[in-house]
Design a protein that fits this description.
This protein is an alpha+beta fold. The protein is 16% helix and 32% strand. It is globular. The structure holds zinc ion (ZN).
C-alpha cells in the first residue's frame, strides 16, 4: 500500500524538470501543477504535456490522476508505487503528432530503488485525444 499522494509546493521546480524558453526550471504551478491540482484540472494541451504531468504524478504518487489520464481500454484497476526509491529525472526525446487524435512521445525516465542500482525506462508511449482530453494508451519499451 502506498501512503497516498505527496504534496508539492507551487513555487518549487516542477518534478518533470521542464525548462522554460529563458533557460530556467519551470515552477510546479506553471507546469504540471495546473494539471495535477484542483477540483477540475485543466486538460493538457498536448500529449507531451500529458506525458510530463504523468511523470510528475508518478513522482508525487498521484494514483487518481494517473488512472484518470489512462485510456479506459487499457487502464489498470489500480497502481502501486515504490515508495522507498526515488525518481531521478525525465528526458523527453521526441514528441510526434501521428494523426488528428493520436500522438507518440519517446522518453527516458530514471528511477533509483533503495539499495539497488538505478534503472531507466526508455519508452515510446501512445496517446489518444478524446472529448478534448489526451489519454495515455500504451507504450513500447525501447532499448
Ligand atoms: Zn512539469
Amino acid at each position: 500500500m502506498s501512503p497516498g499522494p505527496l504534496p508539492c509546493r507551487g513555487d518549487q521546480p516542477c518534478p518533470c524538470a521542464r525548462i522554460s524558453a529563458n533557460g530556467k526550471a519551470l515552477l510546479f504551478d506553471a507546469c504540471c501543477g495546473q494539471y495535477l491540482e484542483g477540483e477540475a484540472p485543466t486538460p493538457t494541451p498536448d500529449a507531451a504535456s500529458l506525458m510530463r504531468s504523468r511523470y510528475s504524478a508518478f513522482v508525487l504518487q498521484r494514483e487518481s490522476y494517473l488512472l484518470a489520464t489512462w485510456h479506459a481500454s487499457t487502464r489498470p484497476a489500480q497502481l502501486g508505487f515504490d515508495t522507498t526509491g526515488r525518481w531521478l529525472g525525465l528526458e523527453v526525446r521526441k514528441a510526434m503528432v501521428t494523426s488528428a487524435t493520436e500522438a507518440e512521445v519517446e522518453f527516458i525516465a530514471r528511477f533509483k530503488p533503495q539499495g539497488a542500482s538505478a534503472w531507466r525506462l526508455h519508452e515510446r508511449s501512445r496517446f489518444v485525444l478524446q472529448d478534448g482530453r489526451w489519454y495515455y494508451l500504451d507504450g513500447v519499451q525501447l532499448t
